[in-house]
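Hi V.,

You were right to ask for the full record rather than a summary. Here it is.
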Amino acid sequence: GTVTNLKLKKFTLGFGQKSALRGEFSFKGLPAIDKTMMNMKMSSSVFQPNDLAIFISKSAAQKMKILGTVNFTGSFDGTNKNFSTLGKLQTGLGYLEAKFKISLNDSMSTSAYDGNINLKKFKLGKLLDLQEYLGTIDLSGHVKGTGFSNKSAKVDFDGNISEINFHQYAYKRVNLKGNLQKQLFKGIVSVRDSSLIGNMIG
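Predicted structure:
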Protein backbone atom coordinates (compact mmCIF):
# COMPACT_ATOMS: atom_id res chain seq x y z
CA GLY A 1 0.00 0.00 0.00
CA THR A 2 0.94 3.67 0.25
CA VAL A 3 3.35 4.91 2.90
CA THR A 4 0.44 6.38 4.88
CA ASN A 5 -1.43 3.07 4.82
CA LEU A 6 1.08 0.23 4.87
CA LYS A 7 0.01 -3.41 5.23
CA LEU A 8 1.83 -6.72 5.13
CA LYS A 9 0.15 -10.11 5.51
CA LYS A 10 1.46 -13.62 6.08
CA PHE A 11 5.05 -12.53 6.47
CA THR A 12 7.99 -14.36 8.00
CA LEU A 13 10.98 -12.39 9.20
CA GLY A 14 13.96 -14.42 10.32
CA PHE A 15 16.82 -12.97 12.33
CA GLY A 16 19.82 -14.28 14.17
CA GLN A 17 20.36 -18.03 14.04
CA LYS A 18 16.99 -19.49 15.01
CA SER A 19 14.54 -16.62 15.61
CA ALA A 20 11.56 -15.76 13.41
CA LEU A 21 8.52 -13.49 13.53
CA ARG A 22 5.41 -14.62 11.68
CA GLY A 23 2.16 -12.75 11.22
CA GLU A 24 0.76 -9.55 9.76
CA PHE A 25 0.83 -5.83 10.43
CA SER A 26 -0.64 -2.54 9.28
CA PHE A 27 0.55 1.04 9.86
CA LYS A 28 -1.82 3.95 9.24
CA GLY A 29 -0.57 7.52 9.44
CA LEU A 30 3.07 7.30 8.42
CA PRO A 31 5.45 9.10 8.34
CA ALA A 32 4.13 10.89 11.47
CA ILE A 33 5.30 8.06 13.74
CA ASP A 34 3.86 9.45 17.00
CA LYS A 35 0.38 9.60 15.43
CA THR A 36 0.62 6.37 13.45
CA MET A 37 -1.90 3.68 14.39
CA MET A 38 -0.23 0.28 14.44
CA ASN A 39 -1.84 -3.13 14.38
CA MET A 40 0.35 -6.21 14.63
CA LYS A 41 -0.51 -9.86 15.10
CA MET A 42 2.16 -12.50 15.67
CA SER A 43 1.58 -16.25 15.46
CA SER A 44 3.87 -19.28 15.79
CA SER A 45 6.82 -16.97 16.36
CA VAL A 46 10.02 -17.82 18.19
CA PHE A 47 13.09 -16.04 19.49
CA GLN A 48 16.26 -16.92 21.31
CA PRO A 49 17.87 -14.37 23.66
CA ASN A 50 21.21 -14.55 21.82
CA ASP A 51 19.50 -13.40 18.62
CA LEU A 52 18.17 -10.24 20.32
CA ALA A 53 21.67 -8.88 20.91
CA ILE A 54 21.46 -6.95 17.62
CA PHE A 55 18.42 -5.04 18.90
CA ILE A 56 19.11 -4.59 22.62
CA SER A 57 22.19 -4.13 24.79
CA LYS A 58 24.48 -7.09 25.40
CA SER A 59 23.77 -6.92 29.14
CA ALA A 60 20.01 -7.06 28.55
CA ALA A 61 20.40 -9.99 26.16
CA GLN A 62 22.58 -11.76 28.73
CA LYS A 63 19.91 -11.33 31.42
CA MET A 64 17.26 -12.75 29.07
CA LYS A 65 19.20 -15.98 28.53
CA ILE A 66 17.41 -17.45 31.52
CA LEU A 67 14.21 -17.49 29.43
CA GLY A 68 15.68 -19.97 26.96
CA THR A 69 13.89 -20.38 23.64
CA VAL A 70 10.60 -18.44 23.65
CA ASN A 71 7.64 -19.49 21.49
CA PHE A 72 4.90 -16.89 21.36
CA THR A 73 1.79 -15.41 19.83
CA GLY A 74 0.61 -11.89 20.45
CA SER A 75 -0.89 -8.63 19.28
CA PHE A 76 -0.28 -4.89 19.46
CA ASP A 77 -2.89 -2.18 18.81
CA GLY A 78 -2.39 1.57 19.13
CA THR A 79 0.31 4.19 18.82
CA ASN A 80 3.88 3.95 20.03
CA LYS A 81 2.85 5.69 23.28
CA ASN A 82 -0.67 4.43 23.95
CA PHE A 83 -1.43 0.83 23.09
CA SER A 84 -2.99 -2.47 24.06
CA THR A 85 -0.94 -5.63 23.90
CA LEU A 86 -1.54 -9.33 24.39
CA GLY A 87 1.12 -11.98 24.66
CA LYS A 88 1.17 -15.75 25.19
CA LEU A 89 4.68 -17.07 25.77
CA GLN A 90 6.06 -20.54 26.39
CA THR A 91 9.54 -20.08 27.82
CA GLY A 92 12.24 -22.13 29.46
CA LEU A 93 10.85 -20.89 32.78
CA GLY A 94 7.24 -21.84 32.05
CA TYR A 95 4.08 -20.36 30.53
CA LEU A 96 3.26 -16.65 30.75
CA GLU A 97 0.20 -14.83 29.43
CA ALA A 98 -0.36 -11.09 29.75
CA LYS A 99 -2.89 -8.57 28.46
CA PHE A 100 -2.18 -4.89 29.15
CA LYS A 101 -3.08 -1.33 28.27
CA ILE A 102 0.04 0.83 28.42
CA SER A 103 0.56 4.58 28.32
CA LEU A 104 4.18 5.69 27.88
CA ASN A 105 5.24 9.19 28.89
CA ASP A 106 8.52 11.00 28.37
CA SER A 107 9.47 9.79 31.83
CA MET A 108 9.31 6.05 32.42
CA SER A 109 8.64 6.74 36.12
CA THR A 110 5.20 8.18 35.29
CA SER A 111 4.30 5.76 32.49
CA ALA A 112 1.23 3.68 33.36
CA TYR A 113 -0.03 0.14 32.80
CA ASP A 114 -3.19 -1.79 33.62
CA GLY A 115 -3.87 -5.43 32.84
CA ASN A 116 -3.90 -9.08 33.75
CA ILE A 117 -1.19 -11.71 34.03
CA ASN A 118 -1.26 -15.51 34.22
CA LEU A 119 1.61 -17.86 35.05
CA LYS A 120 1.51 -21.65 34.76
CA LYS A 121 4.23 -23.92 36.17
CA PHE A 122 6.49 -20.87 36.09
CA LYS A 123 9.93 -21.44 37.64
CA LEU A 124 9.92 -18.44 39.93
CA GLY A 125 12.73 -19.83 42.07
CA LYS A 126 15.01 -20.13 39.06
CA LEU A 127 14.19 -16.60 37.92
CA LEU A 128 15.01 -15.17 41.37
CA ASP A 129 17.95 -17.52 41.95
CA LEU A 130 16.18 -19.03 44.96
CA GLN A 131 15.79 -22.59 43.71
CA GLU A 132 16.86 -24.02 47.07
CA TYR A 133 13.65 -22.68 48.62
CA LEU A 134 11.28 -21.73 45.84
CA GLY A 135 9.94 -23.82 42.95
CA THR A 136 7.16 -23.23 40.44
CA ILE A 137 4.11 -20.99 40.75
CA ASP A 138 0.64 -20.94 39.16
CA LEU A 139 -0.80 -17.43 39.40
CA SER A 140 -3.49 -15.19 37.95
CA GLY A 141 -3.99 -11.56 38.85
CA HIS A 142 -4.70 -7.95 38.00
CA VAL A 143 -1.87 -5.43 37.89
CA LYS A 144 -2.17 -1.64 37.81
CA GLY A 145 0.65 0.79 38.30
CA THR A 146 3.16 3.36 37.17
CA GLY A 147 6.91 3.22 36.69
CA PHE A 148 9.11 0.47 35.30
CA SER A 149 12.21 0.51 37.52
CA ASN A 150 12.67 -0.86 41.03
CA LYS A 151 12.95 2.70 42.33
CA SER A 152 9.98 4.26 40.52
CA ALA A 153 7.46 1.41 40.31
CA LYS A 154 4.21 1.80 42.25
CA VAL A 155 2.13 -1.30 41.60
CA ASP A 156 -1.25 -2.48 42.89
CA PHE A 157 -1.77 -6.24 42.66
CA ASP A 158 -4.88 -8.34 43.30
CA GLY A 159 -4.56 -12.00 42.47
CA ASN A 160 -4.70 -15.67 43.32
CA ILE A 161 -1.93 -18.22 43.56
CA SER A 162 -3.48 -21.60 42.87
CA GLU A 163 -0.19 -23.30 43.73
CA ILE A 164 3.30 -22.29 44.83
CA ASN A 165 6.09 -24.69 45.72
CA PHE A 166 8.01 -23.50 48.78
CA HIS A 167 10.49 -25.64 50.71
CA GLN A 168 9.38 -28.66 48.65
CA TYR A 169 5.72 -28.25 49.65
CA ALA A 170 2.98 -27.20 47.23
CA TYR A 171 0.87 -24.56 48.97
CA LYS A 172 -2.52 -23.97 47.39
CA ARG A 173 -5.20 -21.28 47.49
CA VAL A 174 -3.12 -18.21 48.34
CA ASN A 175 -4.65 -14.77 47.76
CA LEU A 176 -2.61 -11.58 47.47
CA LYS A 177 -3.88 -8.01 47.51
CA GLY A 178 -1.70 -5.00 48.08
CA ASN A 179 0.79 -2.47 46.81
CA LEU A 180 4.43 -2.82 45.80
CA GLN A 181 6.72 0.20 46.07
CA LYS A 182 10.52 0.37 46.32
CA GLN A 183 10.61 -3.46 46.37
CA LEU A 184 8.43 -3.56 49.50
CA PHE A 185 4.99 -5.21 49.49
CA LYS A 186 2.24 -3.87 51.73
CA GLY A 187 -1.08 -5.66 51.78
CA ILE A 188 -2.91 -8.82 52.73
CA VAL A 189 -1.82 -12.40 52.14
CA SER A 190 -4.53 -15.00 52.76
CA VAL A 191 -3.73 -18.72 52.79
CA ARG A 192 -6.39 -21.45 52.67
CA ASP A 193 -4.19 -24.50 52.20
CA SER A 194 -5.11 -27.85 53.76
CA SER A 195 -2.08 -27.62 56.08
CA LEU A 196 -2.05 -23.86 56.68
CA ILE A 197 -4.91 -21.38 57.13
CA GLY A 198 -4.25 -17.78 58.00
CA ASN A 199 -4.07 -14.12 57.07
CA MET A 200 -0.99 -11.90 57.10
CA ILE A 201 -1.16 -8.11 56.95
CA GLY A 202 1.93 -6.06 56.37
